[in-house]
Design brief:
heterohexamer, A mainly alpha (94), B mainly alpha (122), C mainly alpha (975), D mainly alpha (113), E mainly alpha (162), F mainly alpha (551), A: 94 residues, mainly alpha, Helix Hairpins, elongated, D: mainly alpha, 76% helix, binds sodium ion
């Protein structure tokens, strides 16, 4: 097996696993039962999506996808924090 | 990939259209969001699909085969505009909810009479 | 003065006078009258001065170019016919001016009346002097409009308003038909020029468009000349001041219709269609008018129906297809103008001096006003066709034409019979008028004591009656030359020979005339009293047919019908409207595709399939469908699902080589979610459906099924189109050029960014303008935001936190909330500089790598928003003052300035400059004006998005503050 | 799609790291499904946010360092920031859930601290 | 120094981050990184967060490794639980821990450590009683957890940010 | 002929930039105004007025200049089809001037009171005009989308300006409908790009000359795009939003919005004659345009007959006017189209004037007036209170002036002599009646005649009700800015009738020019040909380095 085949298959598989993780998170998100479960599901969706981006960058050997991942990692939590805060206090900003 | 993306666009669009036809303002706002996703992906699809070839040139003089940058630029413009307008729609729906007391797109429940100065919203 | 100038002066003077009179102060009754009189007389003088030039059938023509490409020029054309009508219009006009000066009360805004009057004179002259058919239509409609103003002069009076509206509606409608008819004639002839049209009689009559053109032109003429059944406007127009009625219904307005029929007689008449349409309209009008006149109690009403009947007579004459009848028609037009004007004026005097026009109340006025009575009697006799007066002459000609026309067709025997009958009716109502008003017992119980009017008020009547007598006695000396010129103008070389003698020998027409006179007297003797006490309120046989009532009903019906149609063919509510939009787009796409035989699934290129991508889209689809399903009752869940769908879209962009899009979409996604949540605060939870009546439920179900179909087809359609395009090879488009030239010519490696800030920077400038505008609009709306009462309360979570705090020793409200945010606060605060750095990073690398001003701006906004979320609006604003509106302005200025800077170098707007600058220590650094442009984008994006978010966030703060503000006065009151 | 060009040893290391990370992340997501209560489920995604992410990011750094020819550390930033930020969401969620469960008097509601 | 560099660790962090983002470093990017490190912290002056002083950087590094190790171990534990690989009874539940630390920065770090470690979750902190409510995916040994939190994390943190 | 700017390197005249002025100037002035304190009303009013006057002047100069030859302006110095170009030809210059006059009068009208009914009116107003101008000038379909959005976004702001329940409710529907239209627009444009590979209008026309590979898909895109434009034209059955929205908007907003639907009409004319005038897709959609136009006139007439309020009637008048131009276009008669273009200008003025008049007549009966800010805090700026005070001298003889104005509007809209409305209809009828008369020509003549009557009847009814029937309300007060504004509009109508000859000659020449799409294509694509092309890259680089050296 050549290095590129290994990479191709291995990273493809890793990406597939991450997408599968996304699917599981989405399942929780859709299933609930409570709003907190859904938010948790969305947060996990974001997380695994971010990792999928990193793996995609590895598959293509390109650093061009890094910023998308960094943004998700640094400020992706803003959306879920807002949701959680809404749940906790009934409003996002007092 | 093409069939997957088409199906995705279709489902987003169908969900969006369905929501846009609903009577509650918030439904319409979300429908607008979904429909914008669908349309943005549609515009993007007009440049055909490529994987792993962003239109960012390497530091060499050679021209490489990359994805069509034009639809990407168009999507970016459309994206910003639809973001702005979604925000606007949201605020208008809030304002409407405030002044009419209900969240129907027409500003009144279908089986309620049109409000008059003498008989304001319930 | 040249003849052209005289002609132009005659036509323009009245309009100029109208403007001047309108500018006079509203009490300037006498100056206005003097002005109007002078103008009218001057105009008349001009026309009279041109008389010698008309000898031998000549015409005076003055043309001004107006719309050469349409063949429409302003042509003033004076011939014998026009001369006759001009003199009629101006001479009677001058008398009306004099009369009105004394008739109108000082309290009325009389200058306005004179202003309208002069405009009307001008419009009438415009009609009769038109040398171009379109010009004729133009002035035609102008008379409708000005008469509307004249009739509605006393607009406080409902009758005046209704009368004005009715006359305008009917005559303007006729005018519109006339316009189309004229255009058809123009198409047949190839010109609107009157001379050309008059020369093409045979062409017109033989054209397939003859009938439509004839019908349309006649619609104009018959409505204007108040022919049955369009006559209904005329009696209602009596609400006008009497001088106006005298003018409109004797010499002018209604005569415009007659004029037009005479004018076009040479080219339109001579056919069966003309005979039947014009003849029967005239006959019906003659009978209906004279019959109805009998039953009027109001003197003006009597004159109105009498006018209708005389107009019918003239029309009937024109319909007979006989040149001699036309001569009679012209002659009777003049006669009718003189005696009817004098009668109206006499009635005006009666009304003025007694305060009523009701014949049942009037009686024995002879004693009080013998002079006026005499004048009225002579005029009425002329109207009735008593010998030695002008009416007799033209009626003789009429009866003679009726007899001549009997000819071979048996049905034509009716013509002389009906003509005689109508003449008898005329005699009847004329007699009734004189008898009831001037004779009988002295009047009692009148609003005012009757007496003779002021001297000047009588002069117009005297002159008119004198004319009646003079024409009646010596027609050849008085009217002869004018009539001759008019006839010559109509017929040219083919003018018929006629005789204007009083005595033509004892012939059938004379017998009929005598039968009519005698019959009229007899009828009056038999039925006079019964008419007075007529309990049915209207003419026998026709009392059910109240034209005014019918008109009002049809207008109301029209409005009602229109409302029904508006509901039927329109949609007031949003949902049906949107349904139609989607259906229209679907059908349009379908129609276009089917017409060209579009095959969506043509085999083409495909990108290798990746199951992970498909799985990701299963997630995306589930999120979308979930959002669609939950959005009604579970807004928060739906918002979460939309977030999921958005993430999948972003990842798709990334997967398919669009990192810039992915970055932007992710950022926008985050901000949108925060914004939706800020908004959700003001949308109280929806727990259950609003109860709807059961009947609604079935309909709602049906609508949902329809919507589902629309949504499904919309989805299928968009998916199909996307698939069809994606699987077809991309043609030789402009894309390749951008990829090749982005670096060499624009100095950027990120082609998308180069497109945004250089190649298509103009798009971006517009795009940021949108963002700025929306930011400001949101701000404006929220400044006046009034939350619904049920969302004014603080959220219940906060209540229960505070309750928890109150219940415990040593805790004060807000502590629990503060504890919960303790950690997030620290993290978010210390993250702030790092996000700023991220934003700078995105900004500076944009030209060469994914990023750019927009992404940087949104990232910076998120940095701010995180602070707001962690620490609250008040806390942040005590520390950081951001002025978002100023940022918006600054951003626009920077971006536009970066674009305009290229002007200094003689290059078009937005021409970018780039170079590598050699700097000490740093070496080569890129310098690009596009970066400045991008900075403008960034600044604006921060301003606009922060403005929206902060304005939304402030609502809670405002709620708290207003609650405090309300609590304070309440506390003061209790103390 | 043109994959990166790596020596075989590096390829294997990268793949093992990526698969390991993805495995942990997947396990975390699986926990989201399998665990019974909300408070248990909150723990699960942390697997992906910590070890799962670290392994993948390490693989990415190795790969990109080799591809770009210089040491690439930027992916570490992602690891750092998700470690700092993910807990914020989690603890706010847990706090919100605790509050809701207490006010609704659900069985399994957390006690007062 | 404090006026020019009010938050030296922050400045260093920002400079470092810029350099990492723009590797390999060039003279230009180094200058820019230094400028950013110098200028950007100015915003913190506006925000005025509670001041943070790091007393013992060495201990901080040691704590970092402790946490990383615990994280790794917990990851494996929790993965085993999720995958059903662990035998025996597992109880899940809450545990209340009295904390002595009051610095919000320290508490934040503690919360990040606990929450970022699979198996432990920071649920609620009461500033009046100083008690922390924590959720454990496996609370079989809750007393052990209390000790672990206090000894392994709280004490070093208090020492670092004293 | 092309402007010097485009023909030789470096040879630039300042006057060549004139074409971009109507877009750049409002952006810059609006930007500057956003930096100013909101309370500086007078300064802002003066700035706005100066800007709008400058825009109008630029438009008039362009009208005069383009009679010689169209002007093409390459934004960013990139040649078509790669860059975006602005194209001023007879049609766009005429529309530009129309927008200028309308903008001027609406702005002046707003000085009396409306400009202070909400924040940042002037900025929004200028940006609206900027969007309109851009839409008229651009030669690129996607850029057209952007300017449509600018214009619409500002129109949303102006519709909501002043707030209040009526406006918010109407605004919600208006925004929803137009957002859908915008999405259709995007779908259409992107399909066009996906099949033709270009966005430049001239380039599209050029490519259509030879059969494109994907004609069917392209036409589907055009169909969707057409629906979007017809929504913006408020064509039946897509335009039910218009009367409600315009009736709810404040008067100056409604008056300036009267141009918005005309932008849709403009685009339909522009694209259908350019793309479908000849070539593979010749005549595409023409029947539909005709049918829609006729239906729109009919529905507009029904609506105006049914109207209870003047503002609503004015809204339907706008619809009728759009429908008329569409139908005239659909008949394919050049004469009718040139008449319709003339009519478009006049009827737009008249509809705008009617909105303004209606506001004065209905003032005091406006429930939206009652809205006051709820919260007493920083959101309530001092100028909010000033919003009710009025500026300008009260004009005497108000009723007479309003009456005359109303009459003129009625005559204009009903197409009754002697104003431009009549001339327009006459020109259309003459155009339709010349040559071989087809069934559509008959239909249009009939429908327009009935529509004239259907406009006259209700307007007279409403006018009598507003002006003649005695009311308890205080008599209307006309402020000097309002008077000036009405005078501008109505004088424009009168002038249009007086100089109908030259005006019609202009529109006739316009239609001749439009029916020669190849000239347009040549003008755009040959503008500085090759300068943006690869082969001349060095040339451009040199030009840039000179610019750099100069700096
Ligand atoms: Na693509
Ligand atoms: Na944890």
């Amino acid at each position: 097996m050549s290095a590129s085949t290994v990479l191709d298959w291995g990273l493809g598989l890793a990406q597939g696993m991450l997408v599968l993780a996304m699917a599981l998170a989405a399942w929780r998100m859709l299933r609930g039962p409570r709003a907190q479960d859904r938010i948790l599901g969305l947060d996990t969706l974001y997380l695994n999506g971010m990792l999928a981006i990193v793996v995609h960058g590895m598959r293509t050997g390109s650093g061009l996808y890094f910023e998308a991942a960094l943004i998700l990692g640094m400020i992706g939590f803003t959306a879920t924090v807002a949701l959680a805060k809404f749940l906790m206090q009934g409003e996002v900003i007092q | 990939m093409e069939i997957v993306l088409s199906a995705g666009i279709g489902i987003l669009a169908a969900s969006g259209v369905w929501l846009m036809l609903r009577p509650r303002t918030f439904q319409v706002a979300l429908g607008l969001s979904l429909l914008s996703y669908a349309v943005n992906l549609f515009i993007f699809a007009m440049g055909r699909l490529t994987v792993g070839a962003p239109p960012v040139l390497k530091t060499g003089p050679e021209t490489v085969s990359v994805d069509d940058p034009v639809p990407q630029a168009l999507v970016l413009t459309a994206l910003v505009i639809s973001f702005a307008l979604t925000a606007l729609f949201l605020v208008v729906l809030l304002a409407a909810r405030g002044v009419t007391g209900n969240d129907h797109v027409d500003g009144r429940e279908p089986h309620h009479a049109e409000p008059t100065p003498e008989k304001p919203h319930p | 003065m040249s003849s052209n100038a005289l002609l132009a002066a005659a036509a323009i003077l009245p309009f100029a006078g109208s403007v001047l009179a309108g500018a006079l102060p509203s009490r300037a009754r006498t100056p206005a009258a003097v002005l109007a009189g002078l103008v009218t007389l001057a105009s008349l003088g001009c026309i009279l001065a041109l008389t010698p030039q008309l000898s031998g059938g000549n015409t005076v023509v003055h043309a001004v170019e107006w719309l050469p490409s349409l063949g429409v020029n302003l042509v003033l054309r004076l011939d014998g016919l026009a001369w006759l009508f001009c003199v009629l219009v101006l001479a009677i006009g001058a008398l009306v001016v004099l009369y009105a000066r004394y008739y109108m009360a000082a309290a009325d805004p009389v200058p306005r009346l004179y202003s309208y009057f002069l405009a009307f004179v001008g419009a009438m002259l415009g009609i009769v002097l038109s040398g171009n058919l379109i010009q004729l239509v133009l002035f035609w409609e102008l008379t409708s409009i000005v008469s509307f103003l004249l009739i509605g002069y006393w607009y406080d009076n409902a009758a005046a308003r209704d009368g004005a509206r009715m006359s305008l509606t009917i005559t303007a409608a006729g005018g519109l038909c006339l316009l189309v008819g004229t255009i058809l004639i123009g198409r047949i002839v190839g010109s609107y020029d009157l001379d050309a049209v008059l020369a093409s009689g045979d062409t017109i009559r033989n054209s397939p468009l003859y009938l439509p053109a004839l019908v349309l032109v006649l619609m104009g003429a018959l409505t204007k000349s108040a022919q049955f059944p369009f006559h209904i406007w005329l009696p209602r127009a009596m609400a006008a001041p009497t001088p106006i009625s005298a003018y409109l219904h004797s010499a002018t307005m209604v005569k415009a219709g007659i004029f037009l029929m005479i004018r076009l007689w040479p080219v339109l008449s001579g056919t069966e269609q003309w005979y039947w349409i014009v003849g029967s309209a005239g006959m019906a009008t003659l009978l209906v008018g004279s019959w109805s006149a009998i039953f009027q109690h109001d003197l003006k009403g009597l004159l109105a129906y009498s006018t209708i009947s005389h107009l019918g007579l003239i029309t009937l004459l024109l319909g007979l297809n006989s040149p001699l009848a036309v001569v009679a028609a012209i002659f009777h037009t003049v006669n009718h103008a003189t005696f009817k004007a004098s009668l109206f004026m006499a009635v005006g005097i009666i009304d003025h001096e007694t305060g009523t026009r009701d014949m049942r109340r009037l009686s024995g006025l002879w004693r009080a006003m013998p002079y006026t009575g005499t004048l009225a009697m002579v005029a009425a006799a002329a109207m009735a066709g008593v010998p030695l007066l002008n009416g007799f002459l033209s009626k003789e000609m009429f009866l003679s034409e009726a007899v001549d026309n009997m000819g071979d067709h048996p049905i034509h025997i009716a013509l002389p019979v009906l003509a005689t009958l109508a003449s008898a009716f005329t005699m009847l109502y004329s007699l009734r008028f004189i008898r009831q008003t001037f004779f009988g017992p002295p009047p009692h119980d009148l609003p005012e004591t009757p007496h003779e009017p002021v001297r000047w008020m009588r002069i117009p009547i005297e002159l008119l009656v004198l004319t009646c007598v003079a024409i009646g006695l010596v027609p050849n000396l008085t009217i002869g030359p004018a009539l001759g010129r008019a006839v010559a103008a109509v017929f040219g070389a083919d003018a018929p020979t006629y005789s204007l003698a009083i005595w033509h020998g004892f012939n059938l027409p004379l017998v009929l005339s005598m039968i009519a006179l005698g019959g009229g007297v007899l009828l009056y003797v038999l039925f006079g009293k019964r008419i007075d006490t007529n309990p049915r309120g209207g003419p026998w046989l026709m009392d059910r047919l109240d034209g005014g009532w019918l008109f009002e009903r049809s207008m109301t019906g029209l409005t009602r019908g229109a409302r029904a149609l508006e509901l039927w063919f329109g949609a007031e509510r949003l949902q049906p409207q949107l349904r139609i939009l989607f259906l229209a787009a679907l059908l349009a796409a379908l129609a276009a595709g089917v017409a060209r035989g579009l095959d969506l699934f043509a085999p083409g290129r495909l990108t290798p399939f990746d199951p992970a991508f498909a799985l990701m889209w299963i997630v995306g689809a589930a999120c979308a469908v979930g959002a669609a399903e939950r959005a009604k009752y579970h807004r928060l869940s739906a918002t979460i699902f939309v977030g999921g769908a958005g993430l999948v879209s972003s990842l798709t962009f990334l997967w398919l080589s669009a990192p810039d899009l992915a970055v932007t979409q992710i950022l926008v996604e985050i901000v949108t979610t925060v914004m939706l949540l800020l908004g959700l605060r003001w949308l109280p939870k929806r727990d259950a459906a609003i109860p709807a009546p059961p009947s609604e439920r079935a309909r709602a179900r049906r609508r949902r099924i329809i919507d589902l179909c629309i949504a499904a087809f919309a989805g299928l359609g968009l998916a199909g189109l996307a698939y069809a395009v994606m699987t077809r090879p991309a043609g030789d488009g402009i894309a390749r050029w951008f990829v090749e030239e982005a670096y060499p010519q624009a100095g950027g490696r990120n082609v998308v960014n180069v497109l945004l800030v250089d190649f298509r920077a103009f798009d971006t400038l517009g795009e940021i303008s949108v963002l700025g505008i929306v930011g400001l609009t949101v701000f404006a709306l929220l400044r006046r935001f009034r939350p619904a009462p049920d969302s004014l309360e603080r959220p219940k979570q906060q209540h229960s936190h505070d309750a928890y705090d109150r219940a415990r020793e040593g805790r004060k409200p807000g502590d629990t909330a503060a504890d919960a945010l303790l950690v997030p606060r620290v993290v978010m605060t210390w993250l702030f500089p790092f996000i700023i750095l991220l934003s700078l990073h995105l900004f500076l690398r944009g030209h060469d790598l994914p990023g750019g001003g927009f992404a940087a701006g949104i990232a910076l906004t998120i940095a701010f928003i995180l602070q707001y979320m962690a620490c609250g609006a008040q806390w942040v604003e005590e520390r950081l003052r951001i002025q978002p509106i100023a940022w918006i302005g600054l951003g626009l200025l920077i971006a536009a300035g970066a674009g305009a800077a290229s002007w200094l170098f003689g290059r078009p707007f937005l021409t970018a400059y780039f170079a590598y600058w050699e700097l000490p220590l740093l070496g080569k650094v890129p310098a690009a004006s596009a970066l400045v442009f991008d900075l403008g984008i960034m600044v604006l994006v921060v301003g606009a998005s922060a403005l929206m978010l902060v304005a939304l966030a402030h609502q809670s703060l405002r709620r708290t503050r207003s609650a405090e503000a309300e609590a304070e006065p309440a506390a003061e009151e209790t103390a | 799609m043109n994959g990166p060009d790596l020596p075989a040893w590096a390829a294997w290391i990268v793949v093992v790291l990526a698969l390991g990370g993805a495995g942990f992340s997947l396990t975390g997501a699986l926990g989201l499904i399998r665990l019974k209560t909300f408070y248990e489920r909150v723990h699960a995604p942390t697997l992906g946010a910590t070890l799962g992410a670290f392994l993948i990011l390490a693989g990415s750094m190795l790969l990109l360092s080799l591809v770009e020819g210089h040491i690439v550390l930027r992916d570490a930033l992602i690891g750092l920031f998700i470690t700092l930020t993910t807990p914020v969401t989690m603890l706010l969620l847990a706090r919100a859930a605790a509050h809701r469960d207490r006010t609704e008097k659900n069985p399994g509601a957390p006690p007062e601290p | 120094m404090s006026t020019l560099l009010p938050h030296p660790f922050l400045s260093a962090g920002l400079t470092l981050m810029w350099l990492v983002l723009n590797a390999p470093p060039s003279p230009g990017s180094i200058v820019l990184a230094l400028l950013i490190g110098l200028i950007v912290p100015a915003v913190m002056r506006a925000l005025r967060p509670a001041p943070v002083r790091v007393r013992r950087p060495g201990l901080a590094v040691r704590l970092l490794f402790t946490v990383l190790y615990d994280m790794l171990r917990s990851n494996l534990d929790v993965a085993a639980i999720i995958l059903g690989l662990r035998r025996g009874e597992r109880r899940t539940g809450f545990v209340s821990i009295p904390l002595d630390m009051t610095s919000s920065f320290g508490l934040s770090l503690l919360s990040i450590i606990l929450t970022a470690t699979p198996g432990t979750l920071w649920v609620q902190y009461d500033s009046h009683t100083g008690r922390l409510l924590m959720h454990l995916i496996d609370s079989t040994d809750s007393a052990g957890w209390v000790r672990r939190v206090k000894d392994r994390y709280e004490r070093p943190l208090m020492e670092i940010f004293a | 002929m092309t402007a010097p700017l485009l023909s030789g390197p470096g040879a630039v005249l300042w006057s060549d930039h004139l074409i971009v002025l109507p877009i750049v100037l409002p952006i810059a002035v609006a930007g500057a105004m956003f930096l100013m304190d909101e309370r500086r009303h007078r300064l802002k009013a003066a700035l706005s007025l100066a800007t709008v006057l400058a825009m109008l002047a630029a438009a008039l100069v362009l009208v005069a200049r383009v009679t010689q030859a169209p002007e093409v302006y390459r934004l960013g110095d990139w040649a078509a089809p790669y860059g975006i170009v602005l194209v001023a030809d007879r049609l766009s210059a005429m529309m530009l001037a129309l927008a200028g006059v309308l903008g001027l009068s609406a702005l002046v009208f707003s000085f009396a009171r409306w400009s202070r009914a909400g924040p940042r009116f002037h900025g929004l107003f200028l940006l609206l005009l900027m969007g309109v101008n851009g839409a008229f000038l651009t030669g690129d379909v996607f850029n057209l989308f952007v300017f449509f959005e600018v214009m619409l976004a500002a129109s949303y702001g102006l519709v909501l300006h002043g707030s209040g329940e009526t406006r918010i409710r109407a605004g919600l529907g208006y925004i929803a409908v137009n957002l859908v239209a915008s999405l259709f627009f995007l779908v259409g444009v992107s399909l066009i790009y996906g099949t033709m590979g270009t966005l430049n209008m001239a380039d599209l026309a050029r490519r259509l000359a030879s059969p494109p590979a994907e004609a069917a898909l392209f036409e589907v895109g055009c169909a969707v795009l057409g629906v979007a434009f017809l929504i913006k034209c408020s064509a039946w059955p897509l335009g039910f939003w218009l009367p409600t929205t315009y009736a709810a908007a404040t008067a100056p907003a409604a008056a300036v919005l009267a141009i918005l639907s005309k932008v849709g009409v403009y685009v339909v004319i522009r694209l259908s004659l350019l793309l479908f005038g000849a070539g593979t897709s010749e005549g595409f959609g023409q029947t539909w345009i005709l049918v829609t136009g006729l239906a729109t006139i009919a529905f507009g007439t029904v609506g105006i007959l049914a109207a209870r309020e003047l503002t609503r009637a004015a809204g339907y008048a706008v619809m009728i006017s759009s429908g008329t131009v569409l139908a005239a276009l659909g008949t394919g008669s050049a004469g009718a189209l040139s008449g319709a273009l003339y009519y478009l200008v006049g009827s737009t003025f008249a509809a705008a004037a009617l909105f303004l008049l209606a506001e004065i007549l209905q003032r005091g009966r406006d429930p939206a007036d009652a809205t006051q800010p709820v919260f007493a805090d920083e959101y309530r700026d001092p100028f909010d209170d000033a919003g009710t005070t009025e500026i300008g001298r009260a004009i005497p003889a108000t009723v007479a002036i309003l009456g005359s104005g109303f009459l003129l509007c009625t005559l204009m809209l009903a197409g009754i002599p002697p104003l431009a409305g009549f001339v327009g209809k006459l020109a259309m009828f003459s155009g339709l009646a010349s040559g071989t008369m087809t069934a559509p020509a008959w239909w249009l003549i009939a429908v327009l005649t009935l529509s004239s009557l259907g406009t006259l009847i209700p307007l007279v009814r409403l006018g009598i009700f507003s002006l003649w029937v005695p009311h308890d309300d205080p008599p209307p007060v006309l402020r000097s800015p309002e008077f000036a504004s009405l005078t501008v509009l109505l004088a424009a109508c009168v002038a249009l009738a007086l100089w109908a000859g030259p005006a019609l000659a202009f529109t006739e020449a316009t239609v001749r020019w439009l029916s020669q799409p190849q000239d347009y294509v040549r003008a755009v694509l040959d503008a500085g040909a090759g300068k943006g092309a690869t082969s001349k890259g060095s040339d451009r680089g040199a030009a840039r380095s000179t610019a750099g050296a100069a700096s």
